[in-house]
Amino acid sequence: MQDKLKDILLKVQKPARYVGGEYNLPDMDKPCKERVCLCFSDKYEVGMSNIGTRILYHMLNDTDGVVCERCYAPDVDMAEQLKLNNLPLFSIETKKDVKEFDLIGFSVQFELQFTNIVYMLDLMGIPYYAKDRGEEYPPVVAGGPCVVNPMPFAPFFDAVLIGEGEKNLKELVDLHMQCKQQKLSKKEFLERASKLDGVYVPALKNPVKRAVLEDLDKAYFPTKILVPNCEIVHDRSTIELFRGCANGCRFCQAGFYYRPIRERKVDTLVRYATELMDNTGYDELSLSSLSTSDYSQLKELVAKIKIEADKRKVKLALPSLRLDSFEAEIYEDMQGSSLTFAPEAGTQRLRNVINKNISEEDILSSLTAALKYGVKNVKLYFITGLPTETDEDLQGIVDIVKLVKQLHYKYGKSKLLNIVVSTSVFIPKPLTPFQWEAQIPIEEMYRRQDFLKDNLRIKNVKYSWHDAKASVIEAVLARGDESIARAVVRAYELGCVFDSWSENFDYDKWIKAFEETNVDYDKFLKGFSEDETLPWDIIDNGVKKSYLLKERHLAYEGKTTPNCIGKCNGCGANKFARCFR
Amino acid sequence: MIILKHYKVDDVSYVSQKDILRVLQRGLKRAKIDVKYSQGFIPHMLTYTSTPVPLGVQSLAEYFAVECNNIDKDEFLKRYNQSMPTGMRAVASYYKEKNPNIAAIVTASDYMAKCSKPLPKEIEDIAKESSYIIKISKKGEILEKDIAPMIYSVKVDGNDLYMRLASGNTNLRCDNVVQHINEKFACDIKINDIFRTAQLIGESGSFKDVEEVLK
Question: What domains are there in chain B, each with its CATH number?
């Protein structure tokens, strides 16, 4: 394998992606009873940036008797070479044929990566559907954020891990080791696996409860992480401050899925940050979570980490600051030249509908503060096509942009201010109060984008928008049932792969795939009725359906729900673990 | 200033020069070496590398210079080797008051290619030719280039091919030469590995190893 690889590595772009050899590589030669291959259905640069798979990879390698290797979706040029040379898809570390592992795990991060699962299975020489795979193939399991509704890709997998991998993946690997020792069949293993928390076995259609860590502070977190030799998307070390989010924005899947809120302690985080900086040599450290500025002791944490970071000439990055808790003091310390805000909707009325608890004054005061510190670039994120949205709300986006310009004129320290406005199209995702909503028709998406294109022709303002067609397919794949799987296979056969990379996305092929496989995709774009059983209802994610429904009704009344800091709103997620708030 | 001579072998030979610089700088941070930074608006580490080898070519003679405070050259070498990914190993370290600017003074490099089968002796004659024009593809364009003045010597020893080629300001890629040897002699030779074995200074006839300048 190694010799054959040498021949093809120089024929493909960025060969460093396929050879591994990263710093901090775990011991691959230790005595082991179980070899697991973690697959990521996107390129190396994307997969290596993902903190979830990073945690699981090191967790498994730190487990006695288990060796875990990685495999990423090879770029199309590499896939072509593999096929040409009759080579199977291999693991990065030991260049071993993936189907020879004891267990194969896929991380499914994004709906538009579904074809990549089929693409990778194809390159591995593994039949696409779990039902077609006999005992000669290892169990293939899936996890990751898309398992909120695993139905569209469930037929490809022997088991789907719902919830937090630190818990259910570890248990599953342990169980598989035992079953292997006892020489049990794959079927028997899967039957036992279905009894574990957060393991859905599609063949058994077992009702499943999401696996949730009770104490995040004591959970495994790696600080001796792989440092890639080539550039990746998020090329920095990251600490995860907390899981869950207190702000119940009604369009946000992550905000509901990752509940309950569990924080890590300041001292734990400072220790992780220090170890990471020493072990990686990265010159940037990112404090990550769904809403970093809501961390209960952010000031103390930033102050403590900053001392260590300054000693090592490491820059701190604070992502996803929410407008309402944006703290000018923090900003003063970390003078950058760019600032990102996400008001999501243009008017207060619509922000109330989506429960984005930010007022006009909040926006004004935080922006004014930022401009006074000399911010040169402001990025504003909005969603179009939200329930009840009208042209007035779109005009609201334009008004905010004009207001920012005025503020800059009045208070701006920098001479020039560049404003970038980005809009995405609303996708009614499962496990949100808007899961019953319909997506607006594609013509309407275009009309609203055109409205903004026309009205945002302002000097130093750049408008970018998310492809409407990709949003349609994403909605179908997010909300679909098991019938979608056959359309995914057909789409792959028609040439769809790396759909999340806009240059590869081909809408017409997808529509053709749906038509040829008789999948009524339109059904999943229309709204669901409130009493209907939804494809993902078999999964108990913690948050009660009745709570989501209540939130939906509040949305239509234009009433907001306060965030759950201080007072519990009773969403139901704390039945799995105590909610920090 | 400390100058390291290091290997770049096995898998890291597929890492581009731009990425190698990043790998080196992160390694210095892990090794807790007190590197000096530039005084500009965005301070960066004061580090310098020698001329890069093409992707896939391994090297036993890469040089890397670092401006740093208070560190013994042997201690530097030890810590460097503890902080680098496999394939990047330092074999010697030198202290110099001034930056010798290796990338600028090097004029030639020695290469060794390990081939799949014994090589014909006639290959050695290409170093004697007065003109030898080959076609090189550069950014999608095919260019004709006379490489004869850039080939200083070629020796064959069983399966191994030894070459001394121009390097630095006028540069000849060793993999291009190997490819054209294959075409010219119509031999189906597969190259298993190519190594850069030394970087040289001076002119044809009086070349000496760049390491001598550092000693």
Answer: 2-104 (3.30.70.580), 106-214 (3.30.70)
